[in-house]
Amino acid sequence: QVQLVESGGGLVQARGSLRLSCAASGRTFSLLHWGWYRQAPGKEREFVAIIRGTGGRIDYADSVKGRFTISRDNAKNTVSLQMNSLKPEDTAIYYCNVRTFDTTDYWGRGTQVTVSS
């Protein structure tokens, strides 16, 4: 089992910044991919960013490219999402996701990000 705890959400004005963090515990040796997803009210959960495997390949959703940066600290078993130039449409609950080598997905409980115009 893997447990994930997100932190760093909050209320920010448009064009502001927030940094989200996610800490993993439990069977952390089995973790392969780390990612962030979000779900806005009335919408389905969507992909935001991912850092893959041991090579560290990174991908972003088109909507956040150039504004968000994902990073990982293997020693601390954490992943972060630096969000700059925030827009009201970035308002959502942000979820941390990890996938293990046996393709099991784990999710955090989410952290609310609200961007006011």
Describe, in plain words, how this protein is organized in 3D.
The structure is a single chain. The protein is mostly beta strands and 117 residues long. It is 0% helix and 59% strand. It contains no helices and eleven strands. The strands form two sheets. Strands 2, 4, 5, 6, 9, 10 and 11 form a seven-stranded mixed beta sheet that branches. A four-stranded antiparallel beta sheet has the order 1-3-8-7, with no helix packed on it. A hairpin with a 4-residue loop joins strand 7 and strand 8. The termini are far apart. The mean pLDDT is 95.
Write out key terms for the chains shown.
seven-stranded mixed β-sheet; four-stranded antiparallel β-sheet; 117 residues; 59% strand; mainly beta
Tell me the β content: over 45%
Radius of gyration: 14 Å
The number of strands is 11
Low-confidence stretches: none
Q: Give the CA-based shape.
A: globular
Biggest β-sheet strands, sense, barrel:
7 strands, mixed
Q: List the secondary-structure elements in sequence, H or E.
A: EEEEEEEEEEE
Q: How confident overall, as mean pLDDT?
A: 95
Q: Which bin fits the share of residues in helices?
A: under 10%
Q: Which structural class matches the secondary elements?
A: mainly beta
| Number of continuous helical runs | 0
Instruction: Report how far apart the termini are.
Output: 40 Å
